[in-house]
């Protein structure tokens, strides 16, 4: 008989503090989702609701065409996606398919370990400040927990990554980071070029000086209709590069002018073999003075099989100040956001549960 985790603090202690995670619940044979994971009805994801233009909106952009006669069309497609949806998919991006498959396999290998092997990286006890293993987002502050376990790896330099990242995934995660950083550079040059801004080495470093690779694990769920893998939020950084597996479950919120009458304003991002998902972060929205949009997104769970996703977050360092680029403020005639220290923005972002794009309010210029 599967144990009950609905009494007192037993679930929180088992899942969060002892590091068993959501996978520990599933491995214990639970038949129903514990009460602490049941989301309010307005936060649940109805996967039966779809829009007819899902595939059209997320048709992959072929980056190999940047080096041919269709260069301008590709640049236009990338810029338009960043201005409207904040999400797009790319293929022929320079990250090999073999690496992407190895990345998924290494993530499964990490989460397949016994709980005690993963729990050594729990917050507060991890032997490295660069590695954190956990579950949900900020479980201490969430009314309903997210159905997700994760390991987060911060990059400082190659030597520290090799020495401190988990051995099950460090080599492939580092290779993914390096390949993805080249992709981020290429995309940022396009996006800033579209704004009339040239990106030199110092500016690129200031926008992407802090890099993190996360491996997210969403165990199969007995009641997926009651839960979420990740609640609705936007990313705090500059750009995110995401590998999702073939199961799907990532949803993005559409701007009002993209919503079909009678349809939901959330649509699924269909998995495309070999593609990477790119999304604009809050930092990019602030820098562009609102021209580029950081999209609200979330993840549903599934009852069929466990899901893996691997994002690379390219963000400014905590010591960097971010604000609208002066050239854009001059042309727009107003700064829609104030200049803030990115470390303060991070602290605000991680200091509360996911709640859409509310974190962006921290930088709003109320006098604009």
From TrEMBL:
Domain Fe2OG dioxygenase residue range list: 203-316
Annotated metabolic or biological route of this protein: Phenylpropanoid metabolism
PROSITE patterns: FE2OG_OXY
Lipid metabolism in keyword set: no
GO annotation (BP), single: coumarin biosynthetic process
SUPFAM superfamilies named in the record: Clavaminate synthase-like
Reaction equations catalysed: (E)-feruloyl-CoA + 2-oxoglutarate + O2 = (E)-6-hydroxyferuloyl-CoA + succinate + CO2
InterPro entries: DIOX_N, IPNS-like_FE2OG_OXY, IPNS-like_sf, Oxoglu/Fe-dep_dioxygenase_dom
Keyword DNA repair among record annotations: no
EC number: 1.14.11.61
Needed co-factor(s): L-ascorbate
GO molecular function: 2-oxoglutarate-dependent dioxygenase activity; L-ascorbic acid binding; metal ion binding
Class in the EC hierarchy, top level: oxidoreductase
Keywords (A to Z) from UniProt: Dioxygenase, Iron, Metal-binding, Oxidoreductase, Vitamin C
Record-stated family: Belongs to the iron/ascorbate-dependent oxidoreductase family.
Protein name: feruloyl-CoA 6-hydroxylase
Species name: Anisodus acutangulus
